[in-house]
Amino acid sequence: MLIQESHRDVPTTADGNGSMRIFLFHPTIPNYPHARFPGVVVFSEIYQMTGPVARFCRQIAGQGYIVAAPSSYHEFTGPEPLAYDGPGTDSGNQWKIKKKLSAYDEDARLSVTTLISLPTCTGRIGATGMCLGGHLAYRCALDARVSATVCYFATDIHSRSLGAGKSDDSLARAGEIRGEMVMIFGKKDTHVPREGRDLIRKTLDEKGVACSWYEQAGAQHAFIRDELSKGRYDPAVAGVCWEMLLELFGRVLRTDLGGRVEDGGKVEHVC
What we know:
single chain; eight-stranded mixed sheet; 6 helices; 8 strands; about 25% strand
């Protein structure tokens, strides 16, 4: 599909009166100006809207989803991307734990509301993101309006260290997630070690979250970033994960499934 790119600047109040830029990527079909599409919120890594993140957004939009990508560090800087270098990394990591958790959550709510407000949106909403954005997508899933979420190598969930005070409640609130989720990690990810991944998976299972789990044996952190990934980009593995995203979003967001009915988890044993 063709894509129209724009942005909206929306007011924020969680950390003083401010403004957040939301980048919009809207699919279009010639001769169908009233076509309606599901929406997806895309949360970036610590560098904001970089080239790789923009390309990721365009890929999703091209499949028929309206993408809204918020600028996570609007309290500290403009919507421009941070450089993939030492100073850019230092700033991103510093702001990640300086920003209030309530401000992150407000960003997510505003992004979902922006999508739903569009006359071309069906109201079915998903979320995805990588690194910091993986954690933010997870927290976005706490919003009952979000039906499907894909988290790529989400950081700081296991350590409960997102935001000011480094004491988030993301795992503690796992039971609030009502939509379906896919969690993706590399087994060689030093940012989320095995013990951390095991804790996340165990908690999601115990809380009854409908979650698919994928750990790639050879992948490191940031393996889907196709630019300046420091040798970690793996296009083949990224492609496998992309298909998982398309399957979940296609099944949950494009189809009117009705309300979820629990079956007690019983599966008939057959040969």
